[in-house]
Design goal:
Number of helices: 26
Radius of gyration: 30 Å
Strand order of the largest sheet: 2-3-1-4-7-9-8
Structural class: alpha/beta
Number of strands: 17
Helix content: 40-55%
Largest sheet: 7 strands, mixed
Distance between the termini: 41 Å
Length: 663
């Protein structure tokens, strides 16, 4: 949430004509709104001289806090460099991150999407407390952006409506460019086969002097960048070099930005260089590599890609690509070179065209083209790499359990390295290195328990993927999240119908959100599960409580109809769904049945917990209470003796008051 406000506007309004004030506000808000949209946010409200912008709703990105900060810094720069647009008034900006409700509110005939929640109030208080021309952020935002934004720590603020002082930081400046996700320190865990394939391919490129395109594929956090960095170290150790450009979801500066970054790096061109100086550096590079006869035309064409040309567009794209080819060949002849394009799923079609052109046309040069991408690359580029003589798609899979444990052990303190904690962490992360690291680090720092809330940074990654799905697939995924980690096609059909369901499930499986199980626990029905439990939890958290209740009730009815004579086996599942649906009476009945079943199977501890849950849902005068209390007491006593028999520390003696369940 970003609040921006003109400081001193009230005094100005008292001295100015209302029409002039309207013109000032309109001009100012248009400027601020353009900045918000450029960084992927949306303007939620404009009230007087204030603007409320949202980053992360209705569409989430994995770096929304950074986007909000960069937008705020650009707002301040704009107000400083163009004071006429802001009537000479400075801006005060407050930013806070967290969960909000994003939903329509208002009278039936004028309902509008808006955001509500404590995060909104906190951002407003930060804006009010900010000095003139300053940006204040809350703790969540600061934690998410501390590696890419320079901050000044402030004394905690005493603000209206907050019982405790509010921690705040003042944003000073951004780093040179949007930062890549910090990589893990230490030796690379696993990936020996993948790294070996990259090194073998590179050796062949160097020996044969023929180009090769390699695309490293995998979902967010799977370790693409880490693998490429390890490969970079190996290449440089053998005398080669790696030149890298990164595709950005915003502020890209043109369709060829990643390639332009590479050329600027080689030519020594900085973003602050005047156009004339930048062009002189480019001329110097091409002259050194190609000689004076060819350098002029190549530099002229490349200047268009770099955005420093003054001769308009190149009429023939082939000539533009040919100039890029000549530069690449000259660089790779002088020194074997890997040309890396990171996050190519964000690339414009023009850049992808250029990379494929270079991979196909470069001759007699040791040039390898390395791209990393998420599977979404093939949504709009189904034939990527097809037809090239040298092309390899390298798919990165989740870490196997042994390697996942090794990685988790690096981040967890010794006292937390229990089988239970590590097992839960690995199950939650699903072998995704980023998820393992984020969850382990969060646990080690005492920020969260991986069995409960998820770290915001991991949520953002998953939420961004969910928001990028087509509406039909996203609806199916949200429905599935209500059913649980494992779900069935029939339940989804009950929730949303069968129209397009199979296509959506196939696509979600292809995108690695879901896994189709080989054997289904419901005969005649297909069974699926979420590839990562994180995906299920984040999807479920996006649903409102009202939507959850409706879906839980439908799932419960579906299970009751399909379970038939095996209804007792599904008692725990039914209790969960009826409780989620808000039907306490039905939930109590199934909790009691599940507890009875657990007790019969000598899962006495589980029976005690289930009976306790049932009691928590019941009114004090419910006639079922005495029976359930007695059953719980008997189950607890049995669990106590069972612990002793198996040599485990007993869970405590039977409490004196059955109303107080044991710890």
């Amino acid at each position: 949430m970003l609040f921006a406000d003109l400081s001193g506007f009230t005094a100005l309004s008292e001295q100015s004509d209302p029409e002039d004030i309207r013109t000032i506000v309109d001009r100012c808000m248009n400027v601020l709104g353009e900045i918000v949209h450029r960084f992927g946010g949306s303007v939620n409200q404009v009230v007087g001289d204030g603007l409320l912008a949202v980053f992360g709703a209705p569409v989430a990105h994995e770096d929304d806090p950074e986007r909000a900060l960069r937008a705020a810094l650009e707002m301040q720069q704009c107000a400083s460099e163009h004071p006429a647009d802001f009537a000479g008034l400075p801006l005060r900006i407050g930013i806070q991150s967290g969960e909000v409700v994003f939903a329509p509110v208002g009278p039936e005939d004028r309902r509008e999407q808006t955001v509500t929640g404590d995060v909104v109030n906190t951002a407003s208080r930060l804006q009010t407390s900010a000095p003139r021309g300053a940006i204040l952020v809350g703790e969540e935002t600061w934690r998410a952006t501390t590696r890419c934004i320079e901050y000044e720590t402030l004394e905690p603020l005493v603000v209206k409506g907050k019982r405790e002082p509010l921690r705040a930081w003042r944003a000073i400046s951004a780093l040179a460019g949007p930062t890549a996700r910090p990589l893990s320190a230490g030796t690379l865990v696993g990936r020996r086969g993948e790294l070996g394939l990259l090194r073998t391919t590179w050796a062949r490129v160097v020996a044969d002097r023929r180009p090769h395109l390699v695309t490293v594929l995998g979902p967010a956090g799977i370790g693409k960048t880490r693998l490429c960095e390890e490969f970079r170290t190996a290449v440089e150790a053998e005398g080669g070099r790696v030149l890298k450009g990164r595709c950005l979801p915003y502020g890209s500066g043109g369709g060829y930005s990643a390639f332009a970054q590479i050329v600027k790096e080689v030519a020594g061109i900085f973003g602050t260089d005047p156009a004339l100086e930048a062009r002189q550096k480019l001329d110097g590079l091409t002259t050194e590599l190609l000689g004076e006869s060819e350098a002029k035309s190549v530099a002229s064409n490349l200047s268009v890609i770099l955005g420093i040309g003054n001769n308009g567009l190149v009429k023939d794209r082939h000539m533009l690509f040919f100039s890029a080819r000549r530069l690449v060949e000259a660089l790779a002849v002088r020194q074997p070179t890997v040309f890396e394009v990171e996050d190519s799923h964000l690339a414009e079609p023009s850049l992808l065209d250029l990379v494929e052109f270079l991979a196909a046309r470069v001759t007699d040069a040791s040039a390898m083209f390395l791209t990393s991408a998420r599977p979404e690359l093939f949504d709009d580029r189904a034939g990527w790499g097809g037809g090239l003589a040298g092309y390899t798609a390298l798919r990165i899979e989740a870490l196997p359990e042994a390697q996942a444990r090794e990685l988790a052990a690096r981040f967890l303190p010794t006292e937390d390295l229990t089988d239970a904690v590590v097992g839960r962490l690995i199950e939650t992360a699903g072998g995704n290195p980023l998820f393992i690291e984020e969850l382990a680090a969060s646990l080690a720092e005492g920020i969260t328990d991986p069995r409960e809330a998820l770290p915001t940074s991991v949520k953002a990654i998953v939420a961004a993927r969910l928001d990028a799905l087509p509406p039909a697939e996203r609806r199916v995924l949200l429905d599935a999240s209500v059913v649980g980690k494992t779900f069935w096609r029939g339940a989804l059909a009950r929730l949303g119908g069968t129209d397009g369901l199979d296509d959506a499930l196939d696509e979600l499986e292809a995108r690695e959100f879901l896994v189709r199980e080989r054997v289904s626990r419901i005969e005649g029905d297909d069974e699926f599960s979420f590839r990562h439990i994180l995906i299920r939890e984040v999807a479920y958290s996006t649903l409102s409580r009202a939507a959850r209740r409706e879906r839980h009730a439908e799932v419960a009815r579906f299970v009751e109809e399909t379970a038939g004579e095996r209804l007792g086996d599904m008692a725990g599942v039914l209790a969960h769904h009826w409780r989620g649906a808000g039907d306490a009476d039905s939930a109590v009945e199934y909790l009691q049945a599940a507890a009875d079943q657990a007790g019969r199977g000598w899962a006495k501890g589980e029976a005690v917990a289930l009976y306790s849950e049932a009691l928590d849902l019941m009114d004090d005068d419910d006639p079922r209470r005495p029976v359930i209390r007695m059953k719980r007491a008997v189950a607890h006593q049995a669990a106590y003796h069972a612990d002793i028999d198996f040599g485990r520390p007993p869970r405590g003696a039977l409490p004196l008051s059955p109303e107080s369940p044991p710890d």
